[in-house]
């Protein structure tokens, strides 16, 4: 399928796109804006939130104090939003909704990347565990305190649905969780008030945000790995997806300096992946021939995917990155130090909840263990790397340097 066949370059909204004029609305009804669509307002509220600002000091892979040029959760999020918007334009979707979902998708991440999430899940094992996607929903429906009339950001149903289900349905046709685990409590509680149709597939806007996330980290982690010296061009030649583009760059620019060589390669890898998604999803849409967004919800399959060939190549790249970068001894050493910080803080706050301070310490003596653990988890999950380190230094005699 050619780009023109699917409206590449914009134009009128496709019939199967989410339409802000037909939005299912907000949990708390509000007067509509005369100048912005509901999805534009969602995007703007997300950008102006406290949780969005905190992303600039939350780790992606490398801790931000090591080098100003490494990605953080914020720079990653912006890159995801750019790719999601480009894909949405290719399919004539609602670009504002796609961007909003991309911008909010990492709100639930803890300090220290997946390290913090793993330890928080471990510490919360007796209290329902920790799930970053569920926590993101809690942030935007409860924990943000910016508006007089409601807690959270009061986002539209479509943005919340995309946030919760951008990686696919959470329930099967029989209503049972697909992964065999109970639904995270935050999702279950909110869904009881505002049914997000957890057994349905998400909108195409959510699907482009999800695959944009994969494309972004697959490519920018190569860039960061080269910068950190954990990856080399000789190693990358072994990976078909990267090696193919590296050979093109070397053939065209044989004397290119190493910095530009890396950037030229990664941007070409990104382009190849984006174009593969556009072709594949275009073919899927042609076969499905959806007439409305409801046809997307009820399709029974994810529409926005890589081709079978690209799926194989992408899995190879991920295996390579885990073996050579994410599990590199230097990364694992710092990960262990970060684990100690999160574990120490959780135990300290459970024993002395007043140490959280401010509104987090309000009426803590009245909380049972479940409620206290949930408050501690929410407090810790919202921390930036810098704040977690500062809190540990305040409360403990020795704090790891994370180097």
Question: What is the fold's blueprint, element by element?
Answer:
Elements: H1 38-47, H2 50-54, H3 73-90, H4 95-104, H5 113-123, H6 132-143, H7 157-165, H8 185-193, H9 204-228, H10 233-236, H11 240-252, H12 258-288, H13 293-297, H14 308-326, H15 329-351, H16 369-381, H17 385-395
Number of DSSP-assigned strands: 0
Determine the number of helices (DSSP H or I, runs of at least 4 residues): 17
Terminal CA distance: 49 Å
Summarize the amount of helix as a percent range. 55-70%
% residues in beta strands: under 5%
Structural class label: mainly alpha
CATH fold-type name of the largest domain: Hypothetical protein af1432
Highest CATH level, the class of the largest domain:
Mainly Alpha
- Provide the gyration radius in Å: 22 Å
- Total domains, how many? 2
Region (Disordered): 17-42
Pfam families: HD, HD_assoc
Keywords: Hydrolase
Domain HD: 73-218
Describe this structure in words.
This protein is an all-alpha fold and about 400 residues long. It folds into 2 domains: about 1-330, Orthogonal Bundle (Hypothetical protein af1432), CATH 1.10.3210.10; about 330-395, no CATH class. The chain is built from 17 helices and no strands. α15 (about 330-350) crosses α16 (about 370-380) and α15 (about 330-350) crosses α17 (about 385-395). Mean pLDDT is about 95; it is low at about 1-10.
What would the keywords be for this entry?
403 residues, mainly alpha, Hypothetical protein af1432, 2 domains, globular, disordered N terminus, dNTPase_2, HD_domain
């Amino acid at each position: 399928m050619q780009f023109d066949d699917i409206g590449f370059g914009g134009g009128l909204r496709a019939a199967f796109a989410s339409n802000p004029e037909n939005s299912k609305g907000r949990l708390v009804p509000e007067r509509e804006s005369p100048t912005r669509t509901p999805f534009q307002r969602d995007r703007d509220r997300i950008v102006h939130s406290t949780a969005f600002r905190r992303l600039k000091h939350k780790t992606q892979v490398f801790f931000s104090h090591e080098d100003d040029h490494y990605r953080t959760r914020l720079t990653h999020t912006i890159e995801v939003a750019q790719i999601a918007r480009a894909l949405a334009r290719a399919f004539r979707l609602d670009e504002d909704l796609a961007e909003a979902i991309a911008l909010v998708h990492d709100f639930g991440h803890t300090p220290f990347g997946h390290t913090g999430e793993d330890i928080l899940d471990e510490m919360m094992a007796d209290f329902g565990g920790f799930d970053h996607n569920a926590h993101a929903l809690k942030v935007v429906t409860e924990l943000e305190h910016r508006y007089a009339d409601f807690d959270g950001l009061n986002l539209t149903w479509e943005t919340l649905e995309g946030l919760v289900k951008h990686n696919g349905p959470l329930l099967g046709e029989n209503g049972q969780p697909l992964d065999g685990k109970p639904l995270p409590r935050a999702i279950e509680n909110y869904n009881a008030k505002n049914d997000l149709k957890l057994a349905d597939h998400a909108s195409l806007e959510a699907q482009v945000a999800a695959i944009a996330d994969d494309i972004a980290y697959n490519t920018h982690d190569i860039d960061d790995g080269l910068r950190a010296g954990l990856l080399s061009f000789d190693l990358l030649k072994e990976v078909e997806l990267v090696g193919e583009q590296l050979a093109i760059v070397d053939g065209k620019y044989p004397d290119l300096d190493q910095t530009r060589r890396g950037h030229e390669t990664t941007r070409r890898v990104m382009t190849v992946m984006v174009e593969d998604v556009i072709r594949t999803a275009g073919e899927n849409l042609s076969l499905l021939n959806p007439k409305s967004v409801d046809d997307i919800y009820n399709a029974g399959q994810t529409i926005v995917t890589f081709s079978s060939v690209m799926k194989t190549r992408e899995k190879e790249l991920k295996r390579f990155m885990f073996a050579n970068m994410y599990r590199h001894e230097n990364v694992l050493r710092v990960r262990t130090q970060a684990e100690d910080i999160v574990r120490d803080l959780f135990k300290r706050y459970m024993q002395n909840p007043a140490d959280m301070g401010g509104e987090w310490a309000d009426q803590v003596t009245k909380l049972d263990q479940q409620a206290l653990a949930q408050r501690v988890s929410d407090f810790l999950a919202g921390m930036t790397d810098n704040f977690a380190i500062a809190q540990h230094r305040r409360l403990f005699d020795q704090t790891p340097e994370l180097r």
